[in-house]
Design brief:
Elements (H helix, E strand, L loop, with lengths): L15 H26 L1 H41 L2 H28 L2 H16 L1 H22 L2
Helix pairs in contact: 2-5, 3-5
């Protein structure tokens, strides 16, 4: 806002047009000040903005963490596969096939005897597993290889 100066007598008296312009400028400044204060006091809007920003950050971090985990699981599976002898890998593949066949058989039995709500939940789990196949297979392969290596070392 402008500061009022006492008239010294040397300054010309402002015209009515000048006074109107000063009043209009003062109104404009006052309007901007009121808008700024209203924005500061609108807690709900500020909270929504903050919530949106936090959600975006969380989504970015989740995507980044998922990618890192996927990469690390793939790398771990490759390292285990490189360090595992061929006979152990062959045995792991055979065991994997047996596990897969047994899982199919158990799934068929469970499907026949399970109530409908349980089947729906199982379906959701299967869809998630199918969506993340590569990391699951990598982790399962690494686990099987580690177990077979430990088993082979225990036997004299």
């Amino acid at each position: 806002m402008t500061q009022d100066k006492p008239p010294t007598g040397e300054e010309p008296t402002p015209s009515s047009q000048d006074l109107r312009e000063q009043v209009e400028a003062t109104r404009e400044e006052l309007g901007q000040t009121v808008e700024a204060l209203a924005a500061r006091t609108d807690v709900k809007a500020r909270a929504q903005e903050k919530t949106t920003a936090v959600k975006q950050q969380l989504a970015q971090k989740t995507t980044q963490a998922t990618a890192q985990l996927r990469d690390k699981a793939t790398l771990a599976a490759e390292v285990v596969q490189d360090k595992t002898p061929q006979p152990v890998r062959a045995k792991a593949a055979a065991v994997g096939g047996q596990v897969r066949d047994t899982a199919v058989h158990v799934a068929e039995l469970a499907h026949e005897k399970a109530p409908e709500p349980l089947l729906e939940k199982a379906g959701q789990g299967m869809r998630m597993a199918r969506a993340n196949r590569a990391p699951l297979f990598a982790a399962a392969g690494a686990l099987i290889a580690v177990l077979l290596i430990r088993r082979a070392r225990r036997r004299p």
